[in-house]
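Handout, section 4.2: multi-component inputs.
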Amino acid sequence: MSNSEPDKATGLHSGDAKPGVAKVDPILKASNVTRKFGGLTAVNVEHVEIPRGAITALIGPNGAGKTTFFNLLTGFDSPDSGTMEFNGKSLSGMRSHQIAKLGQVRTFQLTKALSLLTVLENMKLGATDQAGEKILGSLIPQIWRKQEAEIEKRAGELLERFKLYEKRDDFAASLSGGQRKLLEMARALMTNPTLVMLDEPMAGVNPALTESLLEHVLDLKKEGMTVLFVEHDMHMVRHIADWVIVMAEGEIVAEGPPDQVMKEQAVIDAYLGSHQETDLGVVTGRIEVSDDGEDK
Amino acid sequence: MSQPVVEIKDLYAGYLPGVNILNGANLYANEGELIGIIGPNGAGKSTLLKSMFGMVKIREGSIELNGENIIGLKANKLVAKGVGFVPQNNNVFPSLTIEENLQMGLYQAPSRFTERLEFVTEIFSELGKRLKQRAGSLSGGERQMVAMARALMMEPEVLLLDEPSAGLSPVRQDEAFIRVSDINKAGVTVIMVEQNARRCLQISDRGYVLDQGVDAVTGSGRELMDDPKVVELYLGNLGA
Amino acid sequence: MDWIQILSNTVESILSPVTFAFVLASLGLAMHFGFAGLLNFGIAGFMAIGAYGYAISVLRFDLPWWGGMLVSIVAAIAFAILLGAPTLRLRGDYLAIVTIAAAEIARLLFLTNTFDDFTGSASGLFGYHDSFRAANPIPEGTYGFGPFTYSETDWWVRIFGLAVLAVVIWLLWALSRSPWGRVIKGIREDEDAVRALGKNVFAYKMQALIIGGVFGAMGGVIYALPSAVNPTVYVTSLTFFIWTALLLGGAATVFGPVLGSIIFWVLQAFLTNVLPALAQEGGILESLTSQQASTLRFILVGIGLMLIVIYRPQGIAGDKRELTFVK
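Output:
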């Protein structure tokens, strides 16, 4: 292992680690949340709590309802029933931009870097409470110039951190896929969120860039933010997640620290597969297994 | 030495005028080989694959199938010549059943349907049981299966796969890779682009690492997996 | 073929109130489509509301000319809210369909006999000029040179029109450079990304719809100011002419619509003069009457619009990266 293991948060739950277990300090709570599409029940979550200040992974097979649940939590979809609370405030009836204003920010599976804006403009867009964004205020530059300069400074610092500073005046369209991921993450941080929700942040990112993205996610935790992410990359999950929630067919089927959850047979059968630690070249018979074993 | 099934030499290609994504890429595949293409984002992996199927503007270079130039040929001619392509997204017709999707794969030679269906359902046994199901109701991994099966209906000599494991859960990814290996063992030359470099190289006979539009490193699957430079730049250490 | 006369008429059209009206309407459409990505196919409706709002206020309610203009602006705002409230949360195509219908409904309401007392129905409205003319500071006389020779009344209209144009251009320019403009640009590309950053996308789109609508209404006012309000003017083809002018100049820029409108209108003036003359002269158009030859220009506009959308959707002044309809 080239990096040292990150510090994992422990003691997040009160009670046995099973689906719906209460957390010592939950930032997000959801109860009896359902969402149906026609005859299909996409989400049916009895109870779930997301621990504050920790990194929680939401895993599960395709069609398990993870992205739908994500959309429900962030206001991009409304549940058919149920209650959701963020920092004690009820989210029912709230729209996505209102929830974002509360301190929750999300990224998207298909990266939404705004290509027709420059990298810096993308970043500045992320800042909240901008006087210049109001229609009347925008016409009087004196009102927003100072704020704009402050925003630009903060954006510059974040861009440096994400190694995008040199590209600040380029159109986001000219960035590579991995750089766009970084831009989306950096832009999300401009909103000063308390809860960062990442929808498959590693999708389409080549493995070498994954490590630096992971470091950025760990930094979020160091700075006191809570992270909830959906992912298929088990190595990432094992490496940085403090807590894992497993969904299947719309329901939460397992919860707990990563090592524990990933050993549960049901999770292995439905999701991880039994070849997690083996070389597929061996499994497919393409390689001879030498006596001392070719296994990883 | 017999000639390779697919040979790409010094290819320059791109989508927008004046912008080249491939800058002199080379690749060849011998009959029966499983070739893996990995590399960073924007390196041109998908572009290289798509250029073999006439989906990208070729500026310079050659692409030969069994010694014959195939640049400029339309998709229907390529399929007739034995090239099958499985795209990453939008790869099934959601309003059609699985059976109808497979029929679409064979529209140039519909009389062979029964015979090919048997072959395909041997590899994809689950599909055989659900032929009347609407493809739109399938999960991502199941659609991948249908898309691959459809490409196989025309008995291709070469199968081009664009990130077959994308968006799939770990168990489905493993299944997909094992399936690709099975298809290859049945005699189909396979060229696949993959983001899951580790798994891809584990089953590949030979691999290409694409970077900035050229084939930066090449070797057998095992060689690439063990090459420390490749590991550092492309595979990452987490899986090790 | 009296080329001197033809050219003189053509050049003169640059300073015509009709041209100004066109520029204003296309600047409004630029705000809608070029900046916010809203598909408004009813800009003629906003112009009608502006023109009728002005004329009705002056004629029926004895408001002074500036009161009439205020009414036009308020009416445009109301119209925009009416259009936007149900449609801005839906996909863009819905706004497109609703705006075509709304503009036609407006026009037919202005045309129907039922409101004849207010709208003059098929005859339209005229004779509302006194108030505006009374405000003219220019002393009586004829001024100018060459084709640009006008009376003081005509000059007053033109100067006023230019003043309104200057204000509108400045507004559009200032907005496009501001943080508000940045949010709008983001919305045009991807609404969800902007929502996820905490911005109320619906409110921004509504603001853009209102602003562009007011610009369009002022276009209608300037159009009607020196002449009359005629319901046959505000038909759907007017909307498509404005789209052509906008796309020709460059939809996502501030000066593109100005450029496109001027070129468009000058071309129209040229063709209106040249085509009938060609028909009379003999030659290619010999078999057509002057009337028919004149209407040939509409065919040419249609072909021109198609060619622009296919081959140069970003227009003359636009940036190809910003506006390509073919992905």
